[in-house]
Design a protein that fits this description.
Length: 347
């Protein structure tokens, strides 16, 4: 008899996910079968389900790209992992490995990359397949629920920080203290940076303060760029995790000369354009960079910080059957931190 697993499946864009019993997949050459323990629910999953991006995801789709679990079976040709190893599967399911970007440490922008829970089946299931070469290694002592959000939210903010080039002792402005922002503050502190937090909500600024931010600016009460210039003489670097386009514009003006801002958040949908000062960028020799998820090296480093307890995502557990309700909460902006799906206790 064929072995089956529970999975949350999208059959039609914009429809609810359906919890189904489907066959456990077989790992192909170079792949491993993973018994999923936990999978974070990222906003990108909702974008996938609602068909917000082109190209559309491959249907039927099992979403989920913050999966953690253990290797249950090796496909042919796998010698880098063994059964029982604890691993995590990020958004970057695979990259080609031989294009100019892959060869230059920029596999995050490989044009032939596949995306977990989008072009390939993801972690909203009891089992999933992933290429052995692209999974993240997780120490055995780690909490697989707390670690799940590191696979996307964690590595994404971590790479964004790295791409600012900020060094220990320098000031970093974190613009937007939400799901990504509260993690950015922690990575920044762990890396020896000084943090100025910018948000429009006092409770989020309070969270930033409790995580080690030294300067808090409420962009509702004052011009945040002016405030950062006045209070700390401008930031050496900034990361933007907000979704309001205004925040992306303001972040440029928060920099001190020679500063770098890294854009991590995506406004999504209609408003994707910004206006900024060319003379500020030219005269101040400012850099504006984009940052898209993370390489395998970024992922390993991001996991190491979290596994040491230096970075902790705020999480809440939910069973797989609750996924449509979780999406509803997400649509209403009601989720604080990350919801992580519990895929069972294993075999
Ligand atoms: Zn994500
Ligand atoms: Zn490539």
């Amino acid at each position: 008899m064929m072995k089956t697993m529970k999975a949350a499946v999208l059959h039609k864009i914009g429809h609810p996910l359906v919890i189904e019993d489907i066959p456990v997949p077989e790992p192909g050459y170079g792949d491993v079968l993973i018994k999923v323990r936990a999978c974070g629910v990222c906003h990108s999953d909702l974008h996938a389900v609602e068909g917000d991006w082109t190209p559309l995801p491959n249907l039927p789709l099992i979403p989920g790209h913050e999966a953690t679990g253990h290797v249950a079976k090796l496909g042919p040709g796998v010698d880098s992992l063994k059964v029982g190893d604890i691993v995590g599967v990020p958004w970057m399911y695979s990259a080609c490995g031989h294009c100019e970007f892959c060869l230059s440490g920029m596999e995050t922008i490989c044009k032939s990359a596949e995306a977990t829970g989008y072009s390939k089946p993801g972690g909203y299931a009891e089992y999933m397949i992933a290429p052995a070469a692209f999974v993240g290694r997780i120490p055995e002592t780690a909490d697989l629920f707390e670690l799940a959000p590191i696979l996307c939210a964690g590595v994404t903010t971590y790479r964004g920080l790295k791409r600012t080039g900020a060094r220990p002792g320098q000031w970093l402005a974190v613009v937007g203290i939400g799901g990504l922002g509260h993690i950015a503050v922690q990575y920044a502190r762990a890396m020896g940076l000084r943090v100025a937090a910018v948000d429009v909500a006092d409770d989020k600024l309070e969270l930033a303060r409790s995580l080690g931010a030294e300067v808090m600016v409420n962009a509702k009460d004052e011009d945040p760029a002016q405030a950062i210039q006045t209070k700390i003489g401008g930031a050496h670097a900034a990361v933007v995790t907000a979704i309001a386009t205004r925040a992306f514009e303001q972040a440029v003006m928060m920099l001190r000369p020679a500063g770098t801002v890294s854009y991590i958040g995506l406004p999504g949908g209609k408003s994707d354009e910004i206006r900024t000062s060319i003379s500020a960028i030219v005269n101040g020799e400012l850099s504006v960079r984009g940052s898209n998820v993370g390489t395998r090296l970024d992922l390993g480093e991001a996991i190491a910080f979290a596994a040491k307890g230096l970075v902790t995502a705020k999480i809440r557990k939910a069973p797989l059957i609750a996924i449509n309700a979780v999406f509803d909460e997400m649509r209403q902006g009601k989720i604080v931190g990350r919801v992580v799906l519990d895929l069972g206790t294993g075999e």
